[in-house]
Amino acid sequence: MSKSYNSEQMNAVLSAMTEPGESVVAAVYCAFTIAGAAARTYANGYAAITDKGRIIGIKYGLFSKETFEFETSSLSKIRLHAAVMGYSADLIFKPDGGKKGRLCFTVARKVVGNGFPEQEANVERLREELEALEHIMQ
User: Fold this and answer.
1) What is the pLDDT of residues 30-41, one digit of tens each?
2) Spans of all domains in the chain
3) What three-state secondary structure class fits 34?
4) What are phi and psi of 48, to 5 degrees?
5) Which of 95, 125, 128, 132 is nearest to 27 (CA)?
6) Domain spanning 7-137 has what CATH number?
7) Is the model's pTM score more than 0.85?
C-alpha cells in the first residue's frame, strides 16, 4: 500500500483542521520520528502552525492515520536540531487538563519530486516561528 503525498492534499487536509477564521501560516511535509531512537521514522505526514497559535497535522502510519492539534501556549519545551538538508524538531506540550505529549519530526528543505513547490519557504517560516516561541520560553 503506497500513499501519495503532495501540496494539494496537504493544504486540503490541514485546511479542514483549521477553525473558523483561522489559516495556516506554514505547512510542511515531514517524517515523524521517535524521540531518542536515532531519528527512526515511523510515519510521514504534514505539520503546520496557524495564525491563531496552534500546531496541527496528520501522521500517516502503514495502516492508520492520526491527527494532532494543540495550542503553542501549551508547549513546555522546544528543541530544534540541525539535520541533513533541514532540521529536526522535538516539541513537548501539555494541553489544558490533558496528558503530557511529545511530537518529534524531521523536515527537509526540499522534497524529491515537484509535489511541494513551497516546501523550502514553509520550512524556514516554521523554523522561525518555533525559534521565536523557544526564545519566549527561555
Assistant:
1) 999 877 655 566
2) 7-137
3) coil
4) -155, 160
5) 125
6) 2.30.29
7) yes
Element (H, E) at 57: strand 54-60
- Cell readout for 30 is 515531514
Cα–Cα nearest to 53, from 78, 76, 24, 93: 24
Spatial distance between the Cα atoms of 138 and 134, rounded to a whole number of angstroms: 7
Residue 107 CB contacts under 8 Å (≥ 6 apart), including other chains: 28, 29, 30, 47, 83, 86, 87, 88, 89, 123, 126, 127
Residue 92 grid cell? 513537548
Give per-residue pLDDT as tens, 52-95: 999 999 999 888 899 999 999 999 999 999 987 899 999 999 88
